[in-house]
Amino acid sequence: MIKKRELAQNKKAYIRDGRAPIPVNETVSRVMSSNKNKDTEPELILRNFLWHHGLKGYRLNYKNAPGSPDICFPGKKVAIFVHGCFWHRCPFCAFHLPKTHTDFWRSKFIKNIERDTRKIEDLEKIGWRVVVIWECKIKKDLNGCFQTIKELVQD
User: Fold this and answer.
1) Nearest C-alpha neighbor of 143 from the set 49, 55, 54
2) Which of the four CATH numbers 3.40.960.10, 3.40.640.10, 3.20.20.30, 3.60.15.10 does domain 37-154 have?
3) Which is it for strands 129-134 and 78-83: parallel, antiparallel or unpaired?
4) Per-residue pLDDT of the chain (155 residues; tens, 9 = 90+)
5) Model pTM?
6) Whether the Cβ atoms of residue 148 and residue 79 lie closer than 8 Å to each other
7) Helical (H) or strand (E) element with 133
């Protein structure tokens, strides 16, 4: 009986590292904890499309390029960032700030945008061509995303 109680207590215990406010409920915490920073669904869709349409030879999260682009072609100096619309504040989608912890989220999103801008500028300073592919564009026009990347790589 003690083990069941301990398991139930441990199941609800979350390790907090101080980077984010405490969620208002367990579901929010579970959803936020499951977010990944690489191999996201939009990245996998785009990579699969590139591969099946003959654009091979790319590297993932390439550490030798500033900002570790999600996908890059080092020989062609082409870097691709696949941005999730919510986290990177897509200019095409009108996402509102979360209703709780608004100040935290506003600050977080501003820092994300500043970091994204800095990564792109750092790459461009050393001669890389950079393209940002938005999650919504992958969903709406995957072929168009592919054509944009293909043109850069084949230049």
Assistant:
1) 49
2) 3.40.960.10
3) parallel
4) 444 444 444 455 555 666 666 666 666 555 555 555 677 899 999 999 999 999 999 999 999 999 999 999 999 999 999 999 998 999 999 888 888 888 988 999 999 999 999 999 999 999 999 999 999 999 999 999 999 999 999 97
5) 0.77
6) no
7) strand 129-134
